[in-house]
Amino acid sequence: MTLAPITATPARTAYDVVIIGGATMGSAAAWFLSANKDFNGSILVVERDNMLEQTSTEASNNCMRQQFATEINVKIGQYAAEFVKDFRANLGGDPEVPHLGIQNFGYLYLSDRKELSDALIRDQKTQAACGSATRILTAAQIAQAYSFYNLDDIELGSLNTVDEGYYNAPALVKWWRRKARENRVEYLQNEAVSIGRNGDRVEGVTLKSGETVTAGIVINAAGPRARLVAELAGLSVPIEPRRRYTYIFEAEEPLDQDLPLTIDPSGVHFRTYGKHYLVGCPPLHDDPAVDFDEFGYEPGIWEEKLRPILANRIPAFAKIRALESWVGHYEFNTFDRNAIVGPHSTVKNYLFVNGFSGHGSQQAPAMGRGISELIVYGEYRTLDLSPFEYGRLDRNEPLVERAVI
Asked: Which of 61, 108, 204, 293 has its CA 20 to 30 A from that of 144?
């Protein structure tokens, strides 16, 4: 099917659902909703950056894991893995849709202190109860499996190589967007500047180009800008953009096997990246919120932080060279580092799908399906996402996710 170009002008004056944000979460919601045989309403997606150049989607490191500290996040990771492994069939069997699959080099969390070791052991029990293949390994067992690590300071590690590793997240989003548009979802290159509200209901969205469209439901899928979009409706959400760095590098002495996505006790993580390697990290010292359009580099992030940590943990990485790099934003939930999903406590037709704190690409299949079920059936039917409800903010009951990289 040939799709019409995306424009800035809405084709209608009223929509059943208006989604603000058309990257990973917005497109997940749009596709799942439009593909639901029990939904026949109209959907508008408003995205200010339709090339997605400055979105968290574009900066994604494309990872898949089940090693979380909360049971619901483990199950969400498992659902994502199954969805991705059967991606073409899930999108209707179109032969143009790629087989995505997962490159299962695994995740390995390393611990150098009792507090972290105890947390990994506790998390592994949670994961195992959900059917995950996570194992706790001693330093000697890690060395036997991966001889290239320096483990002098390491007590133990947590490893899973089943449905954990890399997958093509940008392709996932590309095809969700395409299939949603084939399902008559309308995408706009535009920006929401106001959300009309009458008491406990939102009624419409005003666009930067001047038009106002009536909305039966508004979904906030604005990623790091979620707080701004909430404020348009007089609401609040504790989301802020936080900077994350990614470098692709080559080693003069490449490893003779895949490098698992290794989470060093320092917080730096690194993994195989084709014939090269990927390393990512938070800022050099503090981790403050940044401006929405701030994508600059701190001085010293490569030479002072990343290179020394890499060379210490993997001596073969003493001689490495950076090939490319980028800066992206986590949509960081400062309340409990977990998703906020579903309706506002009082404004029931304003829905959130925000706060994924770096896990958006792998959590999007479950979130998109859950939001669509909530809209169509008034309840979750596949996975119960109610632990992520907005009401926990009102009650000051955080659902803390410890395993945030």
From this structure: 61
